[in-house]
Amino acid sequence: MATAPEEPTLTVDELAARAGVTVRTVRFYSTRGLLPPPVIGPRRVGHYGHGHLSRLALIEELQRQGMTLAAIERYLEQLPEDLSAHDLAIHRALVASWAPDVVEEMTGAELERRAGRPLTGEDLDRLAAMGVLLDGPEGGWASPGKVHRVDPGLLRLGVELLDVPIAHETILRARTVLLEHTRSAAAELTRLFRDEVWSPYREREADPEHVAAMKSLSAHMQPLVMQALVTAFQRSLTAELRAAFQAP
Asked: Chain centroid to CA 168: how far?
């Protein structure tokens, strides 16, 4: 049975803190119609939910890709209105997948502010196991002046997984499985692209039209492949889970 959507509980200050932006930025996006209005609660205080957080993260990612606000507006207008926070997170992951790797440095206080919760040493161990934290606990996670190297694209997902009752060792094994299979798929797809697409174009590389077409194709390949992989994996996982847990 589907669960009811979570009620918006974040104030504008909390939303901005979780997203790593200013309150002024949140309000600016709202006035441009990029963010839906908050739910007005007692004392006329606006409250935001995970959907706002995911949409804000998507907007920020699109801006990092160099898109103008007008282009972002057109992009968001094409998305279905009933997209969940989970669906928006997938869109953001697809956008970020062809961006250069980004690592942010955060103090423990900043990391907790972005996570929206206190983080124990065990929490930090789990985030490191998931690849969210790229440093180690040398000298102690909570040592004074400790600065963490963080993958901001994985931070929100990692924090949400902290409340899932999965053992630390299971997370490590799951990460190993995903890395092994995704690397294998990437290698096979790269080989296919090289042999079936790149090689024929190289034979005609003196033709300017073919060179331009090749560059255009290369620019579009990664996001298209990422979207195909995410879709295929979602469907395969759904089928496997149904088969594994269906009633006898």
From this structure: 21
Q: What's the 3-state SS for the chain?
A: CCCCCCCCCECHHHHHHHHCCCHHHHHHHHHCCCCCCCEECHHHCEEECHHHHHHHHHHHHHHHCCCCHHHHHHHHHCCCCCCCHHHHHHHHHHHHCCCCCCCEEEEHHHHHHHHCCCCCHHHHHHHHHCCCECCCCCCCCCCCCCEEEECHHHHHHHHHHCCCCCCHHHHHHHHHHHHHHHHHHHHHHHHHHHHHHHHHHHHCCCCHHHHHHHHHHHHHHHHHHHHHHHHHHHHHHHHHHHHHHCCC
| Contact between residue 136 and residue 128 where contact means Cβ atoms under 8 Å apart | yes
pLDDT in tens, 130-148: 888 988 777 677 676 788 9
**The one-letter amino acid at 92:** R
| Residue 48 pLDDT class (50, 70, 90 cuts) | very high
Q: What tokens does 81 get? A: 């209105």
Q: How many CA atoms lie within 13 A of 76 on its CB side?
A: 25
The pLDDT, as a whole number, for residue 198 is 66
User: Do residues 107 and 126 touch, judged by C-beta distance below 8 A?
Assistant: no
Mean pLDDT over all residues of the chain? Answer: 78
User: In whole angstroms, what is the distance from residue 87 CA to residue 20 CA?
Assistant: 21
Q: Phi/psi of residue 145, each to 5°?
A: 80, 5
Cβ neighbours for 36, distance < 8 A, ≥ 6 positions apart: 51, 52, 55
pLDDT at position 179: 78
Residue 167 has pLDDT above 70, yes or no: yes
Which residue shows structure tokens 């255009």? 216
